[in-house]
Design a protein that fits this description.
The protein has 482 residues and is mainly alpha-helical. It has one domain: Sodium/glucose cotransporter (Up-down Bundle). The chain has 20 helices and no strands.
């Protein structure tokens, strides 16, 4: 493993480049630039950068680690993303562009009213705050292990430095900066995956990909049709992927804010199509890398599994300094490309949706409401990371992710009802409904095998959650509309 001084130098150089990009892209720090990049972002740059934002540090470590227990079944869900992204491109995006929104939850205000708007924004805020915090927590743990423990720096300081660096290069330019920093970070991440594949492939002595797959001790099946009760069944996994793509991309301010920065609807749709194709290919690379890593670990006596596998193989030190440097940059890039856009989208949604301030009088930039909110969100991220670290056990982390995934169900139900019906509802009861639907979904998740004779819910629970919200809205229809 490299010396702490070398690792520190690499990190300093990396963030110096990000700050340089931020300075070059934030000459215009207006709200239009911060929120939607002056609507001038090239579609191909957005599509490429979204890969890094979608594949977080957790994906970077977890997807290769899943291969042992889940084989390649994850690809069934990834294939479901494609029709989901097409729905986003040709159903949701036209609505957002027609309304010229900064925040996509403005649609809920227009369609239903005040309480629906606040409810949708509130669920997004909770989702992204938890998701971004957990992604940063995982990366902070790895950095702590590789560097800061050796320097005697406590974990809270590692977390503070991690968030402070993100704030430093995003607070002025916002999404206009993120579009370009994501491009750099996606490049580092993909370079890392390809380089690790090449080095481990050669290290294992293979001549062809077919040979490496046939020699693998792990079954690498992609499709499962045997047991519909299992969440890995093709139909269930495919539908899960489709609705997850719709909810966690098309109904997520973080991902849509990038698309809204494109020059026009046609460019944004082109971005989404190419992004979906690239994303499928990249996930194949991650899964194949996982298969090779397990083989390498088995030969070299490394017993780790899951999220620890990739890190421990790198720390083993036999792959060389070049791979170590790329792994470090790839991991940081994967985490920061999702966390920096989350910080920007949370700032956008909090000011526009929660506080209701779409336009702000010109003032000193540092004392503007936007900057104050940006600092406030950064502090929240820091606090949540420390709470997760204090609770520090896998069940708590899993519960938080489960909670975050449940919050997209009500968004799915609200938007689908708005798009596919013309009914008006009694808006003031929406906050109650969007709390009941996830609660019922959670009860179903806990007792699914008992209630449904062995049926095991997985990611497809988001469909049930959304359906409960959708059906519940019919009970809120105003009588004069019946």
């Amino acid at each position: 493993m490299m010396s702490p001084i070398t690792i520190t130098l690499i990190i300093v150089v990396y963030f110096s480049i990000l700050i340089f990009i931020s300075k070059k892209t934030s000459t215009n720090s207006s709200d239009e630039a911060f929120f939607v990049g002056d609507r001038q972002s090239p579609w191909y740059i957005v599509a490429y950068g979204m890969i890094g934002a979608t594949l977080s540090g957790i994906t970077f470590l977890s997807v290769p680690g899943w291969v042992c227990d889940s084989e390649f079944f994850y690809m069934q869900m990834v294939l479901g993303y494609v029709p989901g992204y097409l729905f986003v491109a040709y159903v949701l995006m036209p609505v957002y562009y027609r309304m010229k929104v900064y925040s996509i939850y403005e649609y809920l205000s227009f369609r239903f009213g005040y309480y629906s708007h606040k409810s949708g924004a509130g669920f997004f805020f909770l989702s992204r705050l938890l998701g971004a915090s957990l992604r940063l927590y995982l990366v902070a743990l790895v950095l702590q292990s590789l560097l800061f423990d050796q320097l005697g720096i406590p974990f809270w300081m590692t977390s503070f430095i991690t968030i402070a660096l993100i704030w430093l290069y995003t607070f002025r330019g916002g999404i206009k900066t993120i579009i370009w920093t994501d491009t750099l970070q996606t490049t580092f991440m993909l370079t890392t995956v390809v380089a690790c594949l090449f080095v481990i492939f050669n290290n294992l002595g293979y001549n062809t990909i077919t040979e490496s797959i046939n020699s693998n001790s792990i079954s690498l099946n992609i499709f499962s049709f045997s047991n519909f009760n299992n969440s890995s069944h093709f139909v269930r996994a495919f539908l899960s992927g489709m609705f997850i793509a719709i909810a966690m991309t098309g109904l997520d301010q973080d991902m849509m804010q990038k698309n809204l920065s494109c020059k026009n609807l046609k460019a944004a749709q082109k971005n989404m199509i190419y992004f979906s194709i690239i994303l499928v290919a990249v996930n194949v690379l991650f899964l194949y890398l996982g298969a090779l890593i397990y083989q390498y670990a088995d030969i070299n006596g490394i017993s780790s599994k899951g999220d620890d596998l990739f890190v421990d193989v790198i720390k083993h030190g036999q792959l060389g300094s070049f791979v170590f440097v790329l792994f470090l940059l790839g991991l940081i890039s994967a985490a920061y490309s999702s966390a920096d856009s989350a910080l920007t989208s949370l700032t956008t949604s909090f000011r526009i949706d929660i506080l209701g301030i779409k336009h702000e009088k010109k003032t000193s930039h540092f004392f503007s409401m936007r900057t104050i909110i940006h600092i406030f969100i950064s502090i929240l991220l820091f606090v949540v990371i420390l709470i997760v670290n204090y609770l520090n056990n896998d069940s708590i982390i899993s519960t938080l992710f489960l909670l975050a995934s449940f919050t997209y169900g009500p968004l799915l139900g609200l938007f689908m009802f708005g798009l596919f019906t013309e009914r008006k509802i009694n808006d003031k009861y929406v906050p109650i409904l969007v709390l009941i639907a996830p609660l019922l979904s959670y009860i179903l998740y806990i007792y699914d095998t008992k209630i449904l004779n062995g049926f095991d819910f997985g990611p497809d629970l988001i469909i049930i959650n959304g359906l409960l919200t959708f059906c519940g809205l019919f009970f809120l229809i105003e009588k004069k509309n019946i």
